[in-house]
Design brief:
By secondary structure, the protein is α/β, with parallel strands linked by helices. The protein has a domain at 8-115 and 168-244: Glutaconate Coenzyme A-transferase. It is 23% helix and 27% strand. It contains nine helices and 13 strands. The strands form three sheets. Strands 1, 2, 3, 4, 10, 11, 12 and 13 form an eight-stranded mixed β-sheet that branches. Strands 5-9-8 form a three-stranded antiparallel β-sheet. A two-stranded antiparallel sheet has the order 6-7. It is globular, with a radius of gyration of 22 Å. The N and C termini lie far apart (69 Å). Mean pLDDT is 93; it is low at 265-273.
């Protein structure tokens, strides 16, 4: 089945107001920026986004955030996005902060048909006991808090240990970015872009992938495929300009070291006669 859609706008056209989106990426690495912009241009609003973070103020999910298109985030951290922090603390945005590994497993479980799982992460904290602030009012008062979660003691090799029940996440739509993809929806991610993208692809009922390079069926080595096409319903081929438009969340550099003289270098490294 050829799953290629002519444009990002067409690919996201049926995403309704109020939908839940699972969005791949970590920081700004591997984010489906073209699909996010298409959702922005479509005017879709009242969205809940499930993603490791919310981009930055002017890129990625941050573009939806600044236009007040997001009503709720399920994520691991605020990161460099000052608008995310401002909207959360001022009561404009509901935020369910979730331990990063737990978030990843909740998404994987949703894509695997597993309704929930037990984990030791968060036991003895507000993650399990409830009371984490999900939403404030404009005066800084907590008006929505996380509920307490079920816990259970299991016997392990180290003895009895308490675990907390976490529920799976299933999103209405998954938005991901891949390095290569074929017309059947098989996807390959490159290096660290293989972060939350496979999980977002799994847990979306309808998954849309933007691919930097579109290839024909059979051109991808099956051993290299990270997301099988069964998880993907639509593929958008990016232009070279769109594929090259990537940003760095925080640029850190250091001065280039000056070359040492040969004799000095040999002495420094204990190579002198």
């Amino acid at each position: 089945m050829d799953k290629v859609v002519t444009s990002a706008a067409d690919a996201v056209a049926d995403i309704p107001d109020g939908a839940t989106l699972a969005v791949g990426g970590f920081g700004l690495c591997g984010i489906p920026s073209v699909l996010i912009d298409a959702v922005l241009q479509a005017g879709t609003t009242d969205l809940q986004a499930v993603s490791n973070n919310c981009g930055v103020d002017d890129w990625g999910l941050g573009r939806l955030l600044v236009e007040k298109r997001l009503r709720r985030m399920i994520s691991s951290y605020v990161g460099e996005n000052k608008e995310f922090a401002r909207q959360y603390l001022s009561g404009e945005l509901e935020v369910e902060l979730t331990p990063q590994g737990t978030l990843a497993e909740r998404m994987r479980a949703g894509g695997s048909g597993i309704p929930g799982f037990y984990t030791a992460t968060g036991v003895g904290t507000q993650v399990a006991e409830g009371g984490l602030p999900w939403k404030y009012d404009d005066s800084g008062n907590v008006i929505v808090s996380s509920p307490p979660k079920e816990t259970r003691v299991f016997s392990t090799a180290e003895g009895e240990k308490e675990y907390v029940l976490e529920e799976a996440i299933v999103a209405d739509f998954g938005l991901v970015r891949a390095w290569k993809g074929d017309r059947h929806g098989n996807l390959v991610y490159r290096d660290s872009a293989r972060n939350f993208n496979p999980l977002a692809a799994m847990c979306g009922r309808v998954t849309i992938a933007e691919v930097e390079e579109l290839v024909e069926p059979g051109e991808l080595d099956p051993n290299d495929v990270h997301t099988p096409g069964v998880y993907v319903q639509r593929v958008v081929a990016l232009t070279p300009e769109q594929a090259a438009d990537k940003r760095i969340e925080r640029v850190t550099t250091r001065p280039r070291p000056t070359a040492a003289a040969p004799a000095e270098d040999a002495a420094t490294h204990g190579l002198g006669g």
